[in-house]
Design goal:
Number of strands: 4
Largest sheet: 4 strands, antiparallel
Strand content: 5-15%
Oligomer: single chain
Helix content: 55-70%
Shape: elongated
Number of helices: 10
Length: 480
């Protein structure tokens, strides 16, 4: 008996899946654009550093109501159930079968003589327990379970990636909404200023001081500013509709908190390291789980070439008389061990193995590509953030210079020292510079949001699970 148990233990410890080692990549230790390190960067709710309560509220609503996130949550539960279905193969399957049959024998059966004393019509009563259990000698069930578990975990990371993308999208859309609103405000102020210039030009024309040419020039510039107002009104409305969609709501106006220029930037941005990416980015973790799943499937495909062993058993009662159903004479049982060895399958098993190895090959290189993409996104965000800061300093200097140019041009114009074209040129240049400054400010915050997203810096997902989510479902999602 001990020898049999030892053989059983050795055989069930066999595993034919390849040994997994994480693919090595030459990715360096730092990015091209390094910045100072700061502990503040690891703040879980990174968007709170902007210090805009309205943004905090929008993100909380999006986490609770976004439909894409609810779909991702449903997929987590779906693949958790699939994993448990595969895992159930570790246990024996027990079924209960009850039958009541009435059988009538044919008179025309000539190949066997009738049995004396046995009527042609008989009743048959049976109640049986059936047991079947496949012994996992070669690790086939174990590898199939590991594959299903990795696929499930991949969906967990996919859901986290949806949350990361959702929060980043809400924050970025909110910044763009503020940017368009600020640009619309600048356009409105410019339009009011140009209306006054138009009125002055009309008065000067009526006084015979200037020609109608100057009036039409002033009118044209006022209309240009009015057209810009309409353009930014369209952009603001579209951005509000986009945010409403992210919030899981019907299109409508979105309230704004502090002005774009009053959003708070963190004191500094860290360079980050590739090793941090491997620990934080959900898409990288999901890509590695795909490798685990594909690796386990290779083990399943290899084990399919070997014999499978199943234990089967039947126990219960069967009789032709209901009065004798519970008698010991009606008891029966059958216990057996079945072995199955495929001999020729038309190369089906071979091609299934080739398929699983090809999937593993794809998963390995998809994982490496995911890392390279992550490194690119981080480096791009660092470059954009640093250069946007430098551009904003230059833009502010440019606006200040053009404001002085516009003031001096107006002063010289009213003193008769230059024509109206100089004023128009100064005012037009100032208007464009003011719009570009707001654009650069928006780019600065957008690059910061991209940096947080690309580094996979997240937060405790538990704090933002749907309010109507049951405790059991939360435990399922957080099980691993």
């Amino acid at each position: 008996m001990r020898f049999f148990l030892l053989i059983l233990f050795v055989m069930t410890s066999c595993n034919f899946k390849p040994r997994y080692t994480r693919p090595e990549m030459e990715i360096g230790q730092t990015f091209r654009f390094e910045m100072e390190n700061t502990a503040e960067y690891a703040n879980a709710a990174w968007w709170k550093q902007f210090q805009d309560p309205e943004l905090d509220n929008l993100i909380e609503i999006a986490i609770k109501n976004n439909q894409d996130l609810k779909v991702a949550t449903g997929r987590v539960l779906e693949f958790y159930a699939r994993y448990k279905v595969v895992f159930s193969q570790f246990y024996p399957e027990i079924d209960a079968v009850a039958n009541v049959d009435r059988i009538k024998l044919s008179k025309d059966v000539n190949f066997q003589p009738p049995i004396p004393g046995v009527p042609r019509i008989n009743d048959l009563y049976s109640f049986l327990f059936k047991l079947s259990y496949e012994v996992d000698f070669w690790g086939k069930i174990r590898n199939a379970s590991e594959s299903a578990r990795s696929i499930y975990l991949g969906q967990v990371y996919s859901r986290k990636n949806v949350i990361l993308t959702l929060v980043s999208s809400v924050a970025a859309s909110y910044v763009l909404l503020k940017q368009y609103s600020s640009q619309r405000h600048i356009s409105e102020l410019t339009y009011k200023s140009r209306l006054k210039s138009w009125e002055i030009a009309n008065l000067r024309y009526e006084g015979g001081i200037v020609s109608q040419l100057e009036v039409k020039q002033a009118e044209s510039e006022a209309l240009v500013a009015e057209v810009q107002i309409k353009n930014f009104e369209i952009l603001v409305a579209k951005q509000e509709d986009l945010i409403s969609l992210l919030l899981g709501q019907a299109p409508g106006p979105i309230s704004q908190g502090v002005l774009l220029t009053n959003l708070v930037l963190p004191p500094s941005i860290p360079a980050g390291l590739p090793s941090d990416l491997l620990e934080n980015r959900p898409d990288i973790l999901q890509a590695e789980e795909r490798i685990f799943a594909a690796n386990a499937e290779v083990g399943v495909a290899r084990a399919a070439f070997l014999p499978s062993f199943s234990l089967t058993g039947i126990s219960g009662q069967r009789t032709t008389s209901s009065n004798e159903f519970f008698d010991s004479s009606a008891a029966l049982f059958d216990l057996g061990l079945q072995a199955f060895q495929p001999l020729f399958t038309g190369f089906r098993l071979t091609n299934q193995l080739n398929e699983s190895e090809a999937v593993l090959y794809q998963a390995l290189h998809a994982y490496q590509q995911t890392i390279l993409t992550a490194l690119k996104e981080v480096d791009d965000a660092l470059i954009e953030h640093q250069k946007s800061q430098e551009k904003l300093v230059l833009q502010k200097q440019r606006v200040a210079s053009l404001e002085e140019y516009y003031r001096l041009a107006n002063l010289r114009y009213f003193n008769g020292q230059n024509d109206y074209l100089t004023v128009l040129d100064a005012e037009k240049s100032l208007f464009i510079a003011q719009l570009e400054q707001v654009l650069t400010e928006g780019d600065l915050y957008l690059s910061l949001i991209s940096l947080y997203k690309s580094l996979g810096q997240g937060w405790k997902v538990d704090d933002y699970l749907e309010a109507d989510f049951s405790k059991k479902d939360r435990e399922v999602i957080d099980a691993y």
